[in-house]
Amino acid sequence: MAETVDGKKEDADYKRLQSFPLIRHTDMPEEMRVETMELCVTACEKFASNNESAAKMIKESMDKKFGSSWHVVIGEGFGFENVKKMRSREQKEKGFYEVLDWVEKKRPQYMHQFWRCVFEDHILQLYPTLRILRNSLLDGTFRLYEKPPDVETLTEEEESEGKGEKGKEKSYTRKRTSSVKKGDKQEILTLPEAQLPVTCGDKEGTLYRDKLSRGEKCILSQGRWFTPAGFERFGGKKNNKNWKSSIRCRNTPLKKLIEEGHLHCPQRKSTKKTCVQKNMRFPVSSSESSSPNLETSSSLLEESDAEDVQEQGGRGEGTEFRGRVKEEEEDMADLSVFQAPSLPVTCVSLTGTLYKYRFASGSRGKCVRTEERWFTPEEFVKQEPTLTDGHWKKDILCHGKTLNFLLKKQILHVHSLLCECAKCSTQEQDVMAQNNDDECYVCHSEGALVCCDECPQAFHSHCHLPTVDEDSPGEWICAFCVLRNSQQWRDSSNISEQEAFNAPVSQHILHCHCLLLCVYREDIQKVFVEDPRQTVRRYSEIITQPMWLDRIKQKLESGEYQTVGAFVSDFQLIFSNCSTFNRDSEFGRMGARLKQMFEEEFQKIFSIQ
Length: 609
What we know:
The protein is an alpha+beta fold. Helices cover 44% and strands 8% of the residues. The strands form 5 sheets. The protein has a 4-stranded antiparallel β-sheet.
């Protein structure tokens, strides 16, 4: 029996991640891509050498993992001797990628061992680029895209401070990269260095991140310290009046790095308040102006505010956010509402249920369940037709909070991209299993389940009606999907309730199966499943004509019902007996709720007008 998967998934992405994702990704900034590629080429082509380099250390590490026979694991086909003989960088790069393809296809089971050998501490200390790669893989921030996304994630803090550029996201705790159009540069993935090389015009300098965050003069150039605005003037870009765009690090504007959380400027009270102070020319008290750090910080704040106002000037306020929930008081939020294993979520007009144990990241782990199917958070957002630039962290809401808020509060946890759990697995069987529920639709318990190939439901073979042959080959669809499909091509005109009662069961056996399955599912405590005379004291003394669900199932399967009305009357008998025996007890109210559900489902399933 087949289990389906949304065939066109991100399998290609996952395969790359399993092997050599960062150096394989050609949209990476050229400088970083070449540096990383050359480091790894050098390491790989000298794998068996005694050279005192990263390659030798990696080889020694591999020897420890695989013993002296490591070359047997890698195999003769690894091809490093040929790569080593290539002189031009283009030929070497092409040859190296061919080697990677060979490893991916012939030795995929050793990918994680290889990376663990490369990512040992003493190697990472010598090669910062490898450290960048390791960090982005292990903390779950690295992401490949087949198509460039239109947006980035806005954090709640940044949303409350001011409006960013339309169509962009800002990431904070879980930073992800977004690929760009072919030929463009991609943003820097991770910047662990405390000092960054920066340029503005024809001037070069070094930016000290800690000084920038404290609002001090933070750029050292030609032996002089500058504020960002001062360095902009020093570089001949005074007329720009926007140091965030004028100053670049590795060809990336500082504005981009600030938006993504790589750099931090001093926080300001609010844009509106600062603008009023500047316009009204309020003086600063002597105590406030006495500190040089505070003076510099204030300068930075004013520069930042002026740029924010300038950026907002050409756009209508309010169109940027599309009703996004502000979470300015997130620290005071009642987190108890998020403790349940499953949480209600919305995305504009969409509704679903997020199961926390299934969540792995935006693109891995189908954790959002709708009536139709399971989605990853990214897939769920794409179902909303009104969102052209949606992003799962900001556009999916749970109890009025974004999923980014849930990540920051550690209610949800992003898995590492090196994670080997079933939710992160790219094995076809594991991926397909995520398309269906993890428990039986009828009895709500786990076990060996038969999965429908058209909807997310799953069943124990004996719980479904009719019983499923587990060994049957090919695809299988459940009774509910069969009924839904049949209703699409047969006469869709409604019938009256009396016409339904008079109809022969033989012509509506599918309807009866679905109705009975719905009642089984609703009776979670299994109060009405078995003969009550076996478990309830004095039941026979009060109820002379008992009825229970298993008895109805038996009569239906043996052909004892001639009409739908006779089938329905046995359900009514269960509800009547419950009301008589239990009166105003909790079981009586339970029976009343079950009766109401039964009547509603009967109307739907039989299309009663």
